[in-house]
Design a protein that fits this description.
Blueprint lengths: L1 H6 L11 E9 L5 E12 L6 E10 L6 H6 L7 E7 L4 E4 L3 H5 L3 H4 L24 H14 L6 E9 L2 E10 L5 H5 L7 H12 L10 E8 L28 H40 L11 E3 L5 E3 L4 E2 L17 E2 L1
Antiparallel strand pairs: 1-2, 2-3, 4-5, 4-8, 6-7, 7-8, 9-10, 11-12
Amino acid sequence: MRELKDSTHAPVDGNSLRKVHLVFRIRRKSSGYVWIECNGRLHIEAGKGRKAVILSGRGLAVPTLPWDHVARNGGLSENEAWMKVSFDGLILHSTSTIHDLVGKSVDKVVGQSIFALMPGGENGPPPHHDQASANARLASAFRTASSGETVSALTVRLQLLRYNNIVDVTTVIYPPRSTDVAASSEADEDSPISDASRRLSVSSSSSGGIKPSSLIIQIKVNSNAPNKQIAHSGSTNVFEELETTRGTSWQYELHQLRLLNRRLKEDISGAKAKGKKTGTKKRKAENGLGEMGPPGSAGTASTGSGGGVRMQDSFTAAPRHQLTPGFGLIAPGTYYQ
């Protein structure tokens, strides 16, 4: 309503009419709600001055992904990126961590084909006669996931280009979950986690009957590092903020996330500055001022038998952003050294 009200202000100083972009929920005739995206601009009737906002809209298919599916396919990795891609592999959105994988920013990869990030790949899917390469296996997995032939995630091991180097990664492709068929045909019928996932798929109206046109993929660098612990229950939706049944305002939640990210950046800057000061003190201590604890230890100083200063080992609480509801890496209340 605020956007519509602000759009009615007449242009001044030769400026063009303000464009209007709206994303909102609207009730469907049968049941539930659906996301609608509208674009348009203000129209002023000539000679009468009457105003109207002319919009064209389309339904948005919001993905649904239970956390237990992520856990069953390797969970969260230390070095990974998430993408939304079209059925043909066109990158529609990517997390900023893609830079650590391929050395390119989000702006550089969005709009490209994921095949262009692979050795020997082009900006599009490979030809159908190519059946042996990793590019062909990935394209086949995209077709299988988008056709609705499976509700289970598909895993493809492939390589990505990072400058002049090759990065071995594992790509997990999560098929769209938009119908009750996906819920009723879930594998492992007797599993309580699967039952929770089926209830999520049936009850969630995020897709609203709109056929999804994209896939969610997770790209993880192959390593021996342990996976991150998932703090959410298996039935919780990864994209729960986008559910149409959520009671809070989407704009309010996005604003809160911006504030949280800002505080997180401040915490990181403060920790880096504190680390530099701690490093200076350690160097002074190594030059004869006292005995310090092992590298990376933290705590309060205490006097040892030799008169030197030694740092006591302690545990550090998880960062503030990881203790907030909805963060999936470390469970609230846990501690790490």
